[in-house]
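Ticket reopened. Same input as before:
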Amino acid sequence: MKHQKTYWQENLRLIFICLILWFSVSFGLGIVLVEPLNEFRLGGYKLGFWFAQQGSIYTFLGLIFWYGMKMNQLDKKYQTEQ
Amino acid sequence: MEQLTLYTYIAVFGTFALYFAIAWWARAASTSDFYVASGGITPLQNGMAIGADWMSAASFISMAGMIAFMGYGGSVFLMGWTGGYVLLAMLLAPYMRKHGKFTVPEFIFDRYYSKTARIVAVACLIIASLTYIIGQMKGVGVAFSRFLEVDYGIGLGIGMFVVWVYAVLGGMKGITYTQIAQYVVMIFAYTIPAVFISLQLTGNPIPQLGLGSTLADGSGLYLLDKLDNVVTELGFKEYTTANLGGTLNMCAYTLSLMIGTAGLPHVIMRFFTVPSVQAARSSAGYALVCIALLYTVAPAVGAMARLNFITTIEPMAGEPLTYAERPQWFKDWENTGLLAFEDKNNDGKIQYTANVSDNEMVKVDRDIMVLANPAIANLPNWVIALVAAGGLAAALSTAAGLLLAISSSISHDLMKGVLTPNMSEKDELLAGRIVMTIAILISGYLGLNPPGFAAGTVALAFGLAASSIFPALMMGIFSKRMNGIAAIAGMCSGIGITMLYVFQHKGIMFIPGTSFLGSLEANWFFGISPNAFGVVGALINFIVAFVVLKMTLPAPEHIQTMVQNMREPGETATVYHH
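Engineering reply: fixed in the latest deploy. New output:
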């Protein structure tokens, strides 16, 4: 039973990391910090505006695929142990 | 026949013929085919199907228009409707797939060992789904009446018939393959005009880059800076910084849409159609790729449409267009009543300004921006025809997914699960088809006679999903001890508080005059608008559930073992040997 507990704990740790990034990019950079970030530019985009309308969506995509990849590795690891 | 009308007929009926052919090829033979396509859909296929299922007439037609007029504030829709997939991929979909059942209420029944919980879940699901379908049916009717110049009611009838054929015949299997085709139609219809317009304005064919580029008119100005200048000159708020009710309201709005998205049963259901837990995770990723293709283009469509619209009405600063010289698209949309001009100072010119008493564009419906966009930019007729087919694909694909969620919750959860457990598989399949037919007739009727509250109900649907279904599912997976009584108490208080808040500000069942606090911003709880309140309901759901759990016994041992099993790696329960 012991290894199952660690599989779940490792999963929780991954979820925690992903959700911190998920939250800080969309709510942090896209909404709360939008005004200071708007002082910077990405081409014609104000940076905060870019995060709210483009950057956060790309971040979500990256997070889901990274999490899926990590979990597949974890599945393999615990399945071979069995 | 006019060239445009001819092209539109070809595009619309060509795509309909395609959907019928697919439905015939993929017709359902068993309940497993009918509800979950026998678990045999690949992640990429499922991603496209989820994309089409999720992106409704609201995403295709309304969203870019809302962004066009809200500017930066419109970001809540972009982030809210995509960020939910992160929650789905990490917090719900894999474990629910591991458990391996047909429907969301069935999962709630297993986890909370309670028929009451199942019935509460069915009720939430039906209210949320029916309100959504009304919007889709209206979209179908509008698209037909504008582009094919047939009566609204006849257009609605054709749409109902098309959905009926492939949804009733094919079930989840037919719907999934049809949605894949509809996704392709939709994404081409959305991006092709955007590419053309981006090329015209900035010389860059990729809309996401065009929005951040300089204008091709030789001025060297960035497109967004030009847009900021133009709208502030007319007295509107600056496009790239216009806020939506303050930072807290924007955060609450975004979070409500995110957890509402993750809690919508017709989306969650799609994750039961893939063969494994790994496939459920990657499906969420592919779904977001398919959705992001449209959602990252939408801000460009919105901003460029706004700019084109203003520069058409006012070609030079301070020199508005003469009404008699207005372009053909202007006249076409005036005929529909969605665009209206009133010459207040009788100078024959179109003064468009943020000042309500001087503004002569007395009606500019946001929904026309995407549909009128190709015409405003003088794009060829076949592009306009494609947009009509795309709008219909968006509305029909979402309607079909919602109908399936409704029919499965009634035939599988209510009839087979609660009322008549001895029903044979064949009878259940027949019941599913009959329920779906009835649901189509009801939604068609409501589309023809939309209740007064139709516009406000989308907020209610998201509020319900966010405040009831999402917390119940999440606690069921992440807390082994969570018991049935606590979960039901949580769901009921979450829904209760959300509905109370929406009704007190928007009227009971949205009937004007019954709102006892009025829709005044001053009365809003911490300035949170009713549409953004789902997250507060969800929070209350969590708190109530954990308080009740403290006072009652934790879930029995066999339930805790079941939850443990959902969390472990290994073989997935096969839905199709159910």
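Residues 152-202 of chain B form the longest helix (51 residues). Chain B touches chain A through 48 residues (CB under 8 Å). Please confirm and we'll close it.
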